[in-house]
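Provenance

Sequences were taken from public entries as deposited. Structures were produced by running a predictor on each sequence independently, with no templates supplied. The record for RNA polymerase II-associated protein from Ceriporiopsis subvermispora is shown for reference.
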Amino acid sequence: MSTNGYHADSPPPTAGRSLEVELLSEVISIELDNLDPNPQDMIDLLREGRCKGWIWTTLAAEYWRNGYLDGAQKIGEVAKDYCDNDPQLGSVYPVFALLANLQVARAYKAPKMILSSARQDKLHAERPKEDYYTDAASLFNLGEKKAAEAGDAGNVLSLLTRGILQLSKRSMSEAQRSFESVLAQKPTNIVALLGKAKILYATRQYPQALKLFQRVLQLSPQCLPDPRIGIGLCLWAMGQKEKAKAAWQRSVEVNPSEWPAQLLLGIEAINTSKNENQSEEERLSEFLLGTRFVERAFKANQTNAAAANVLCELTIQKGQYKRAEKLAERVIQFADTKTLLSEGYIRAGRITQAEGIAQDAFKHYAKAKEGSQPNIVASVGIAQLQLKNDEIPAAIHTLDTLLQQPSGERSAEAIAMLASLRAHPRPGVSSTDQAQEKQRARELLERVCRILHLPEDPHSQTANGSSTPLTRSQRKVAQDVDLHVEIAKLWQGENNDRMERAYQEAARLSEAGGRADPRIVNNLAVLKHLEGDASQARSLYEKALTDAAGLDPAVAEGMSTSILYNLARAYEDQGEIVMARDAYEKLLNRHPEYVDGESDPCLASLCMYGFRSAAKLRQARVLADMNRKDEAHDLIKQSLVSQKSDLNIRAFYTHFLIQSGTPKPAKDFVFSTLKDHDKHDLYALCAAGWIQYHQARESRDSSPPGVQERKRGFQRSAEFYEKALHLDPMCAVAAQGLAIVTAEDALGNLGGSLGPMGPDEAQKRIKDARDALDIFAKVRESINDGSVYANMGHCYYARDEFDRAIESYETASKRFYNNQDVPVLLYLCRSWYAKANKDQSFSAMATSLQYAQKAYHLHPWDKAILYNIAMIQQKAAEMLLSVPPAKRSLKELERAIEQAGHAQKLFASLAQDESPVIPYSREIADQRRKYGESMLRRCDEHLAAQRQWEAEAQAKLEAARQRRQEERERQEAAERARQEELRVQAEKLAEERRRAREEALAWTRDMRVESDEERERRTRKASSRKSRGGAEGSADEQDGEREPRRKRRGKLKRGEEREGEEEALFSNDEEDAGAGGGAGVGKPTKKRAKKRAVADEDEGEPSAPPRKRQQMYKSKEYISDSDEEMS
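Predicted structure for RNA polymerase II-associated protein:
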């Protein structure tokens, strides 16, 4: 401890490294660099020589400098008693200050707290820092009392000691005042400068602190503690990291045995090793260098919590938990900041959690959360422990509390963990609450996607790359495959697009990890399959099968079975019937009674359809598509023999019989299902309703018993549908069946088929269609099928809303049938035909013809479609011939006539068709042919009329265009003439203004000349008046004064006479000319008017008292000034 400036009569410290002590007869030199750790001999020597107090404190300080704190304290204690008893040896206060600083030095190496539950680093015999600080304060106060008694209070040493004690107690403002008081007396005091610099750094005043550290370095380059460390810390905080590193490196060069710079360089090197932009060799080199620096620093000072904290993390990564626990306990006990204390508790919690000591881990994490800022790692650790103890609600509460804090709201790790907990089903949670929890989990995961910029975030598609880079921990979360699978599961069944993006990212990450997970690839393939992309789904299924083959056979068997089934379905949808059959046979050879999705309950595959069907049934479906219906029938019967009561197989068999065109066996089988197996089977009830409705509708028996039987069939159909809806109010198939019954008025007279039509039949038909539409709109939300849109189109067609009918049909055709379904194409043809007739639109009729031709291309054997094509072509020509020439074009007419000729050939061939069963009437076909002949005979006349009308219309159009062109040219010529006239006027006005400016300037020059002459005359007359006597001179002066005024008035009148002729000259031309503006015409300036007014006033006062004469002099002076201004 420096005592510089304390005693004026004390000799300065010795220049060398020795201290001379005078005895009675000799002088003994003490070598300060080679002191005996035991100071007893030195104490005896100082006693014998009756040395001054400053020698005692100097020797004690040297012991302290050499690290012998006990020796220094022993010398100080003896000196305190020795000097206190003998006032001639000097003041005892420096001894008290020395002892107080020794206690502070001991506090620096003492633990902040004693951990009573420490298992490795036990320090029960040590005293905490607070005890040393208390002793130091006691010694300081006692010394202050002694100094006050001696009349020596408030000296530099007192202020320094006070500042050090205040700084150690974190009383920054008081310490700063103490140090500033020292610097006011001694501006170069090193201790005060260092103390103030440290306070400025702690209060984040880095530039000011930097200047002080640099000042200390200039004053004392060998100062300890090294100011270069403070310089580096300030530079680092100011962002100048390379300069900071250079300062610390220089400190290590100057003081290789000091640990602070080594610790800082070690931490910097370890952090640099985490930079992923460097090569692996560079990162490893930086890591090893940093580790060596930190180990050296800790070896030099094993009570340093920062070094222990770094080494603890490195030791945890090595798995050396015993040593790591000791280091963590060292951090906890010696930490002097809340941040270090929290990190010590967190690492202790991690170690005990890894060792399975959950209770201790929970305590450590709870202690870490007691800091001022919420600790994310501690909260996550507590949640993990609660989750391990199956306390899921408590874990959710812990994470919820964390995320409500500002520091935790952007923690992707905590948010992802909380989302996973909320999405996980928990016992005792109702379905409503679970749905709410699932929604909250989605919202949380959306926050994670936004924070981490994941592909699942819809806004990430529009990001422009301006987002902040992710941290290392955030990248680990973003690369977690399970996180993306969790996101996909939460959106399952609600948003296939987001599911697909999540599975794509999960598949990419799993492939980047070395091996793709077959389950993820399979799920991605199923999504593609559901979207209708069978080709992409097939390639993904094949890849998943290949990936599954490389796994353990026990796991791969279940995966490959389900994936093979999905692959067979893809073959089937692609039309690869042979490959699909082979895949099903291969699957059945492995598992003769395989049912999809049941062989591996752990497989995260998606169910493609609502019911479960055996692979044997899928093979039957393939054979049926190959028109090998007998073989398909045998396979279904085999399945029924083995699983006679399987309602899914019975439903498939019912469907097979209906599609095979055998409604009678289908009716018997479905009634058998309802009677013998399950009278509440929804599929059987809906199938029975459809069969009853189909038979009643297709019946052609018009006899009274036949009509009654049809009515009963419709009634039974409605009853079956109603029963299905009673069992399941959400059954969309039954709802659609009832809607069809309502739309076609099957329970009424079926549009006149079951009885006479009433007068309001049209209104009733529209109302029934409206009611059916309401049902179909709700069914559409449950059934994603083209039949719903087709039925809605029928309702719109019945209401004569052809545009909306076309929209519904096109949706069904494009979205569900790929424009390959003939009935839907014919529905579109019918709707466009009706629209064309209603709007008299040839283009709509052409569109109708196109749909009919597409349907004929798919079913070239269907003569009904061929008849419709001929009818549309003939009707198009008939429509164009009936409209006036203004509503048609020659090109359309020629095309319609050409199509009508083609229709004639079709009608002729259809009328001559000798097939036994045809879907049209030969007589009507022949009549249409004859009608076409008569219509075509009038075509030449219509063509000639159309050509004549279009020629006349073209001539009128050309004439109108020519008139518009002539009018436009006339207007342009008039505009050019007007612009030329304006230009000439502008030039004339500019010339007049130029002449006016020249005249004004000439007049101004003349006025200046006249004003100069008048001023000279007044000067001569004034001098002659001064040479005359008193009264006579006064009269002469008045006469002489009025004379120039009269002359001046004459000039003004002369100006007034010219005012009428040259009024423009008295405008603001002069000011405009001086300011660069143009000449203008205005009134005379105010100065001329004011000048005339003064002249008139003087003229009306012939004899005035002297006071008035003095006022006249002022007026004269003012007029003279005004004349100068006007000139």
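Residues 1-15, 462-466, 595-613, 1031-1127 have pLDDT under 50 and may be disordered.
Residues 680-779 form one domain.
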